[in-house]
Specification:
483 residues; alpha/beta; Rossmann fold; 20 helices; 50% helix; globular
């Protein structure tokens, strides 16, 4: 066996292995990437100019990504695996385009009289240069300035691996948002205020400020990756995809993205329902026709006959907890309910907090679904006593006021975290509803490990109805897929 030399052991990883590590990280972030996509990425690297970083970024994105929502995660990981620069032993950076930022020169720390600048004066000088760069709109220069600003202003103490940097320290010191008025005056150059020119100028300022913040975040992630490793930083630096965001922790921008995924989910459920009806056309065995057909084969029923099955287009009854603790979850599931109207013969939606009210009227055809969800909180009678969840009273109110809604042709779907605030859970009422329904499911946005803890009655409810953990749109998709 040929011994391995030290030079071979210490040899840096090849470009192919580097690409493989990058693709694996993107896949771990939730982006679906197949083997053929990886092969296409390798071919793209042969085609594009590897010295042109942005060309490489767009080339890999074109062959690896299938949805626009995957681009933010891809860009964050691309910046970790293909950084703009690499720090040398002195802590300063080798610029990606061979240019040095002029403020790094020793003369920049001295004033016109040759005296050293104070920290405040140095920060003011950097703010002035940032304002000029934002006016010029030179993205490459802005990126180099962001790199230098992180080096000078972003230090926040020592870590076991070296100096730690924070983006908020840079943004707090430079306060780029306070430059808007000066930037607006510079871009308008004496033009009249209040018109289209001002709107364009304000939008330009917002875009350039956002680009500067992004450069700061990218530089901080790059330095963290050099100290802690790319894989370790990737676990925390990459935001989860929209379908992986926890409903109970979703922000406004996450809900906006989830709203865009409602229609594909509804379409997928519609396809599965249509397939089930198509493949289930044969009804019960027609014994008389089967026996008659068996006479031709000596009494052996080789071919069975079945009665025609009546095609069933089910009804859907939704009971949704709209209390504050599950607001994000109820928001999304009600949007999905509205999108499913065309796939069911009838959809009845009911919302509750500590009492129940029908909210079907808010989802009339042609109405804005997002606005309908907001109207539920303002107009629907879902609060009876103190505004805290009361599943028992809500279930009893539903059963008393709408006793015929749930029947043998209806599918019952309950949405909520099953936290009763230690009140009566209404188990007998729920058992009666489940018994009358054709199918019954309960989607719970809490992790399964928390079921039954504190005031949660999830374990008791799960004995009466199939309860499914549904914390993300991905889990909801899995539930729809197996229906």
């Amino acid at each position: 066996m040929t011994p391995v030399s030290h030079s071979e052991v210490d040899r840096p990883p090849s470009l192919v292995s580097h690409l493989d590590d990058f693709v694996r990280a993107v896949r771990q972030a939730g982006v679906p990437i197949g083997i053929s996509d990886t092969i296409d990425a390798a071919r793209a690297m042969v085609t594009v100019d590897l010295l042109d970083r942005e060309q490489l970024r767009h080339g890999l994105a074109a062959v690896l990504l299938k949805r626009p929502t995957h681009r933010p995660a891809f860009d964050a990981l691309f910046d970790l695996w293909w950084p703009t620069s690499i720090s040398d032993a002195s802590g300063f950076d080798a610029a990606d385009d061979g240019q040095e930022w002029e403020i790094q020169a020793p003369e920049s720390d001295r004033n016109a009289d040759g005296q050293n600048l104070s920290p405040e004066e140095r920060t003011d000088a950097m703010r002035a240069q940032l304002a000029q760069l934002l006016l010029d709109g030179d993205d490459a220069a802005l990126r180099r300035f962001a790199r230098f600003a992180v080096e000078r202003l972003g230090q926040g103490g020592q870590s076991p691996n070296g100096q730690t940097f924070f983006s908020y320290r840079v943004l707090r010191a430079l306060s780029p948002d306070t430059l808007v008025a000066a930037l607006l005056n510079g871009l308008l150059s004496g033009q009249e205020r209040g018109g289209l020119a001002e709107q364009v100028a304000r939008q330009t300022i917002r875009e350039r400020l956002a680009a500067f913040r992004a450069h700061i975040e990218t530089e901080v992630r790059r330095r963290a990756a050099e100290q802690r490793g790319k894989q370790n930083v990737a676990r925390t630096a990459v935001m989860p995809l929209a379908n992986q965001v926890d409903f109970l922790r979703a922000q406004h921008k996450d809900l906006a993205e989830l709203r865009r995924s409602v229609t594909p989910l509804a379409r997928r459920l519609a396809t599965r329902l249509a397939a089930r009806r198509r493949h289930g056309r044969r009804g019960r065995l027609d014994f008389r026709r089967t026996v008659r057909a068996s006479l031709a084969t000596g009494g052996v029923p080789l071919v069975t006959a079945h009665r025609p099955r009546r095609v069933h287009k089910p009804e859907l009854v939704v009971l949704c907890d709209v209390s504050g603790s599950v607001a994000g979850f109820s928001h999304f599931t009600l949007l999905l309910t509205a999108a499913l109207r065309e796939q069911f013969s009838g959809v009845r939606a009911f919302a509750f907090v500590d009492t129940c009210d029908e909210v079907t009227r808010f989802f009339a055809p042609g109405s804005d679904v997002a606005d309908a969800v907001q109207r539920i909180g303002r107009e629907a009678r879902v609060v009876w006593f103190d505004g805290h969840s009361d599943y028992g009273h809500s279930l009893e109110t539903f059963a008393e006021q709408w006793p015929t809604v749930v029947g043998p042709t209806a599918s019952l779907l309950i949405l909520g975290d099953a936290r009763t605030n230690y009140r009566n859970p209404g188990l007998p009422t729920l058992a009666a509803l489940v018994k009358r329904a054709r199918h019954a499911y309960w989607l719970n946005p809490e992790p399964r490990r928390q079921w039954g803890s504190g005031d949660s009655a999830a374990d008791d409810y799960s004995e009466l109805v199939e309860m499914v953990e549904c914390r993300t749109a991905e889990q909801l998709t899995d539930f729809i897929t197996r229906l």
